[in-house]
Amino acid sequence: MPGRIPLARPSWTDEMRQAAIETLDSRRWVKGPQGRAFAQEFAEYCGAQYASPCNSGSGALIAALRLLGIEQGDEVIVPSFTFIATATSVSMTGATPVFAEVENDFWCLDVEDVRKRITSKTKAVIGVHLFGQCYNPDLVTLCQERDIALIEDAAQAHGASVEIEGELRMAGALGTVSCFSFFPSKNVTVGGEGGMITSSHEAIGARIKSIVDHGRDGTLESQEVGTNLRMSEVFAAIGRKQLVHLDAWLEKRRSHATTFTQVVDANSNLKSPAVRPDSNHAWHQFCIRTDSAERLVEHMNDLHIDARLIYPTPCHMHPVYANHPQANETFSVTEALCRQLVSIPVHHSLTNEESARIVKAIETYF
Ligand SMILES: Cc1ncc(COP(=O)(O)O)c(C=O)c1O
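Above: the input record for the complex with pyridoxal-5'-phosphate. Below: its predicted structure, written as tokens.
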């Protein structure tokens, strides 16, 4: 019986173990040199000016909304096809998430639909680089034109990039404020929960550290309402060791994705994910589109390969939004994707033998 191939297998090496132990031995477990260095190295990697590690991707989103002063009475446009935290982070601030449709080919926010949903109450848009694919650069232009903040939900997109006006820009430098997650399935992990906020705006940069630390600016006095959203030093030390491998890991994800794309395209029952022109996909997920999604999941699982419908419920249809004004609105692309997308393993830790088993499984699906 072959071993099960999981959807994620985060790296855990001797150098990471050593970094964790050294940090524990130092007894400097919070607010120390590891967090400061991780912030600097992560900002440099993204081409952002400021960064602050925090406790999770969800914490990063809430901090970003607070940094922008979003509150009750404000509207924030979000895709309905994403992980639910994109929307619920808005609700946590008391503001209203306004759901928008996604692109049929690339699955990120549909910029024309966003344009239609802007009102005088719209304070921000949260664009998601879904599955590691950057959102449409026209979203950046639209938000600039309309003077609306753009929060980048880059939870799934460490290392993704897209060209804007001829310049390649990394995820983390494509919004007013950007948010990453280090949840164990992500492209970079920290040995637990974690997140990162980045920005290149001076006014945001001035508060990016205090927003995760009770609104304190290095003194014992709070300048604004905040809470403890900090990252532990141990996690920061592990994250630093992981970050140096990110480019090599992305190469592996891209190589698997290229192989799987070829096999999927040779199977007339299945459709491979499209890659946006002038962009570098970070392949957090590889999703196959098919009308027989549940059958594909069963087929893969029978062969001991983890696979699942990625987001079976559109965000606006989650019970938490039963009383939302858009609860009964039809989002035809989103609803189709929720029925049709099956995520299969594409992570950097896949062995050649595992990749070959996945290829075989796709070839034998009918
Ligand atoms: C698109 C997106 N946004 C936000 C989050 C929240 O991140 P975390 O789980 O670290 O809170 C995730 C995590 O899965 C995500 O995929």
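Notes for the reader.
The pocket of pyridoxal-5'-phosphate is lined by residues 56-58, 82-83, 85-86, 128, 153, 155-156, 181, 183, 193, 195 (CB under 6 Å).
The first helix runs from residue 14 to 26.
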